[in-house]
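## Example record

The block below lists the input lines for one assembly entry, exactly as stored, with component labels intact.
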Amino acid sequence: MRNRLERRLGSVARMMPVAALTDRHPLLAHHPIGASTGFLVDERGDWPRLTERAAALSPFTAELAALSEIELPGLAAYLTHDASLPFHYLSVHAPSKDLRMAESKLVDTLARLPAQVDAIVVHPDVIDDPTEYRRLGSRLVLENMDSRKAGGRTADELAPYFAALPSAGLCLDVAHAYDVDPSLQGAHELLDRYACRLRHLHVSSLDADGHHVSLRDDDEQAFRPILRRCRDVPWILEAPLAP
Amino acid sequence: MSALPSALERLAAHSVDGLPHLLAARARTDVEVQRLRARLASVELDADVAVVLFGSWGRRELTEHSDDDWLLLVDGPLRDELASDVEEVRSLLGAGDRRPGTQGAFGTVGSGHDLVEHIGLEEDDNRNLTQRMLLMLESVAVVGEDVHRRCWEQVLDRYLAEGRSDHRPPRFFLNDVMRYWRTIAVDFAGKHKDDERKWGLRNAKLRTSRKMLFAGGLVPILRCHALRGADVRPFLAQQLALPASDRVADAFLSADQVDAGVRCLGAYDRWIGMVGDAATREELAGLDRASARDSATFIEVRRLAAEFQNGLLALLFETSLAPAVREYAIF
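Predicted structure tokens for the full assembly:
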């Protein structure tokens, strides 16, 4: 009984001064900052546990990532039937790999996610027919892509998607923008052109293969001008912060 | 000579989307205020009486569906002979769907004397508090502009009489503004404990228009922490003469937080567009707590309201205002 209560209370039972967190890493001074469950690979598919891990970093915001299509039905069932989550801003990352189902069926599943999901992040390169995604309304959030992709990387390349999806928001993946343009002028242009579409940030560094890894000190320095322009939106960590 | 652009217009210039609904509502309000002033010019009132409009009129956010929340404001104590003046104004304002709110604070006569002398304690009831706060934060006179200004200055000076030190926000005024916001929020819960009629529209307004009213008072008062004591009154007089959205836009520009300001006021702009649409307003008015959960319209309002609030929180906690928020806004 006591263990269950402690498990349920989670981060409350382990409450600590914010100063301890910010001393450990200045990025954590931002509010709200939360975790993507995408990097919690050992617990993939265990949505209650993944949610608890995300809430331990922040009960205010999180991104539940169903990066492979096979993960989506379990997440949808969890959110629909089981979850009463604490997050003020909850994002779901839609599948971007191992896609097999028809696009209309995938969008059906995403559209049925309960109202507590504020944002549904979709990679533009998985979109064949943008009109299908209109059903997601303003919950649809398009993410800018990295240099490995053929499109959706820059403000110009995202323009046709936003023209077809006028209610869609933007998730600015800072590492992707840096990968495409190390001067970060491309990131500034995304913020200039789509200021009112910006919903949240993805924050991490990338390794040589384009995988999200812990934010490196030099990247954090480089990203600062972009982060300063985004103080009012949630930041989602796509990799754990370095100790 | 053309007027200088307002803070809202200057902020809008930074956004590719602009702030079309807010600026259109402002232009509409200006036209309607002039129209009402002409219409009420024939009403014979004593020299110490004003007709004052509140709410969206004072915020300059008038839509076709806004209420006429008016008050006959007397610069002094109440007197019996004003009853006929109230009836005359009632025949000219607030007809049909535009009738004033039902809380008893509007569509009646109010005493400037009470607004100044009864701050706190039993006599400062909900009605008095509401009239005073709206007078200070979102009001416009359509008759007796000088009377309105005099009452407004008397309340301001009463707040500032408690002390005007260098680099200290006027705490008495701050406490009353914060008390009013908390009162609105608590009264919302009280009002809807057993009656969920109009829950959706009222909840939407609490998240947006009422929060703009509060922020429009809170932010200028906190900005006084950067001022010498002698500059507090002229600063507040200048700021509070502006619509609330200008005060908030000016704070974002002063803090060099243009991006957050564009998003914050951009979200509020889209709310103004929604509440000005008859079908949307009707849908929101028909929602109770349960049906709101499945309403795409309400969910969109909630999203816009969150963006609006996130912008305000960034202004309060991620700029040079943050130490003043920490020092004065909690205790």
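Confidence is low (pLDDT under 50) at residues 8-22 of chain A. The longest strand of chain A covers residues 198-203.
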